[in-house]
């Protein structure tokens, strides 16, 4: 349970990541709430914090009918049961089937699942199946065998998913990019020399202080060629995005990772420019509050600096933490976003 000052800040911010860590007791009304309750904030002097609903009830309080603080444990159990069902199913189950199995309505369970995991049940199932496919492709000699081992009903569905998610053919994925053409260029930005590389789908690498040799290590079997004249506009737009990181860039990306990594990256892109989040907040936002170190690792595994803003994540004590391209660049990015006119 956090200290009272931290708890009060969480209540004022209606921070969902603190739900389940304590409840807020309003002594004048006799009601206790989740930290994220949307009801009007009480006065600080009328508030006490309790570890859980049971402790609040012992103090004579009753649960809020608006935020239903005692439902969180049931929600967590329902999500855990749903994940087990999805992971054990040969075919991805429909939302209504999953919701019925845990005793929720489809619309309510969709919201509960998304809050807990950061994705819908269908997206979770797709990511799980894609992870299994990537693992199978690294072991199986025949792509078809890997497709069925991963749980796909046939090659058509797998190729549809892989083209959308992997950005290259399944056999090329298994062979480290063999047969894939990646265009690359070095360009000067306000943060120094930038390396940008892209497949036909989108940007697959944006980094600093790297050159073609670094790309060869990441994509050892891909064909690396300089950016064509037709793709020159993409380089210019990428430079503009780096020089003004607070503006929406709309650039196409070709990135891939585990379901957890991709959930973290999606959460990074939800952080408004000029704001920061801690690694703990990111872990909680994707439904894994205890996976703070894993969230940090996922943050570090980001292949496209700036465009997926891993620089907006700092330590819980307010210090900058690490950054692959140096803390001075991280400071510059945060300063540019906080003061866009400068």
Task: Provide structural commentary.
- It is a single chain.
- The longest helix has 18 residues.
- It contains 15 helices and ten strands.
- The protein starts with a helix and ends with a helix.
- The chain is α/β, with parallel strands linked by helices.
- The chain has a four-stranded mixed sheet.
- A hairpin with a 2-residue loop joins strand 5 and strand 6.
List keywords for this structure.
10 strands, alpha/beta, 342 residues, four-stranded mixed sheet, Arc Repressor Mutant, subunit A, single chain, 15 helices, Double Stranded RNA Binding Domain, DNA Methylphosphotriester Repair Domain
Question: Topology, pairings included?
Answer:
Layout: H1 4-13, E1 23-26, E2 31-33, E3 47-50, H2 53-58, E4 62-63, H3 71-88, H4 95-102, H5 106-117, H6 121-137, H7 143-149, H8 155-165, H9 170-174, E5 181-189, E6 192-198, E7 203-208, H10 212-218, E8 223-226, H11 232-243, H12 259-270, E9 277-278, H13 279-285, H14 292-300, E10 313-314, H15 327-338
Parallel strand pairs: 2-4, 5-8, 9-10
Antiparallel strand pairs: 1-2, 1-3, 5-6, 6-7
Helix pairs in contact: 3-4, 3-6, 6-7, 12-14, 13-14
